[in-house]
Amino acid sequence: MTSTLTPTLGGAQHAEGQLYVTATHKVRATVGRPPFDWVPYGVQHAWKAGARKTLCGEWTSGWTVFWDRSFSATAHQTCPACVEASLPEASRSRLDPALRRTA
Questions:
Q1: How many CB atoms lie within 10 A of CB 16?
Q2: Cβ contacts of 81 within 8 Å, gap of 6 or more
Q3: Residues in a beta bridge with 71
Q4: What is the 8-class DSSP label of residue 75?
Q5: Origin, by domain of life (predicted)?
Q6: pLDDT tens per residue across span 12-23
Q7: Which of 3, 59, 83, 87 could form a disulfide with 73 if both were Cys (CB 3.0 to 4.6 A apart)?
Q8: Percentage of the chain modeled with pLDDT above 90
Q9: Residues 57, 49: Cα–Cα separation, whole Å
C-alpha cells in the first residue's frame, strides 16, 4: 500500500495546490520494458497532498497516490465530480443549472 503522505525520497518538491491521481486499486503496467510501474486501475480521482479526501469528497484512507501522475480532466476513467471540482469557480457556476440565470 502506498502512503498518501508526501514522499521524502529523492528530494522531490510538490507544488502547493498540485493535483495528483489517486485510486482505490493499482496494477502493474503491461507495456514497455520491465520493471513495470504501478498504474491506477478503475476510477482516477483528484487529490491534493496532505488532504484526507479527494476533490469529490471520497476518503482516501488506504488508497494509492500516484506521485508521478498529475490529475488530468482528459484522462480515461476520470471521476466526473473531481473534474468539476478542479475547474475554476466561474466554470463550475456555468455548468451548474441551479446557478444559471434565467431570462
A1: 8
A2: 55, 56, 57
A3: none
A4: S
A5: Bacteria
A6: 555 667 999 999
A7: 83
A8: 59
A9: 14
C-alpha cell at 71: 490529475
Q: Using CA atoms, how far apart are residues 79 and 85, in angstroms rounded to an integer? A: 10
DSSP secondary structure letters along 1-62: ---SSPP-GGG----TT-EEEEESEEEE--SSSSSPPEEEES-BEEEETT-SB-TTS-B-TT
Q: Which band of pLDDT confidence, cut at 50, 70 and 90, is reported for residue 8?
A: very low
Better-predicted residue by pLDDT, 6 or 40:
40
Contact 40, 74 (CB under 8 A): no
Task: Cell 500500500: give the residue.
Answer: 1
Residue type at 80 in one-letter notation:
P
Cα distance between residue 45 and residue 49, in whole Å = 13
